[in-house]
Description:
Elements: E1 2-5, E2 12-14, E3 45-54, E4 70-73, E5 76-78, E6 83-87, E7 89-99, E8 114-124, E9 140-148, E10 152-161, H1 163-167, E11 182-195, E12 200-212
Parallel strand pairs: 1-10, 4-12
Antiparallel strand pairs: 2-6, 3-7, 5-6, 7-10, 8-9, 8-11, 11-12
Amino acid sequence: MNIKNLNMGWATRSVRPAAVAGLVLATMGISACGSATAREGQGASYPIIVALEGANGASGSSPTFSTQAVASDVITFIKQTNSWTIFSDPGRVTMRLAMRDVTNPNDPTTNNAITFNRYRVVYKRSDGRNQPGVEVPYAFDAGITFTVEAGSETRVPFELVRVQAKEEAPLRQLTTGGSPLDISTIADVTFYGADQAGREVAVTGSISVNFANWGDPAS
C-alpha cells in the first residue's frame, strides 16, 4: 500500500544556561502506545490510526520514531554551545480510510476523503493523579491540516510535547534533582476533521510519554 508523507516542522527554543544538579537517572516505564481509535460522526467513511509514534526531540534533526514509550528530556545540555536547551518532542501519525458499509459494491468517491484541521493532546497518569500543571502537563490544542484518501496511507508529523510544557510545572521541577525524578504519562491524541460533505469525524490514539532529565547526547 502506498504511504503518503506530509512534512511539517516543529519549533525548538533555547534557554539561558542554568546549573542542573547532577545527572538524573530515570527508568523508562512500560509503553502504552497504539492504534486505538474512537470513531465519531455519521459519514460513510471513517479514519483508522495505523500507528501513533513519538520521538525524543533532543535526538537531532532526524529523530527515530517509535510506537514505544517516548523518553522526553525536559532539559538538554548542548556540548558545542556549552548551554542548556529545551526541545519540543515530535509525534507522527499514520492513518488510512475505511468505509462503514463494507457490502457497498461502489468504490469510495472523493466525497469520502477526510480532511483534518486540528488535534488535541491530553496527558494522564495510570495512578489517576491527573491535575494539570501539578501532576501532569496541561492539555493543548493545535492546528494541523492533512487529508486522508481511500487507497493509501497518510503519514503526518505533529508536535507531541510543546516547549512550553517543559518550562512549566510539573516538568520544570524535574530539572532540579529533587523528587520526583520522573513522571510517566499516557498521551491521548485526538484528531478532528470532516469528510468532503462536511460531516464531522474524530479519531484518537495513545502513546506513553515518560518525562525526566534524561542523559544528554555526547556531542
